[in-house]
Amino acid sequence: MAVAPLPHQEIEDRLADLPGWTLDGDCLTRTYRLGSHIAAAALVVHIAQVQDELDHHSDLTLGYHTVHLSVNTHSVGGAVTELDLRLARRVQDLAPAHGAS
Fold this sequence. Notes:
Elements: H1 8-15, E1 22-24, E2 27-33, H2 37-54, E3 59-63, E4 66-71, H3 82-94
Helix pairs in contact: 2-3
């Protein structure tokens, strides 16, 4: 699938449906807080599975009770594309099952 950078206003409009996600430069970012380090690690594994399904991978950082994502599309010069919003939506939908806030 060919992807193209999205206009800034479209990204901002669509982020309204993704609470906690922000546009930071040329990346969508979100940090989730969890009840334990094990819960955070489990969320990382689940996100990695989704990334493989979508064949689209973010920078994913496991911290103490936290998971941080930074998402953009490297193949279009590091801009935000539909792929990034699709990944953010999938993560947003699965995070509550892990107790993430």
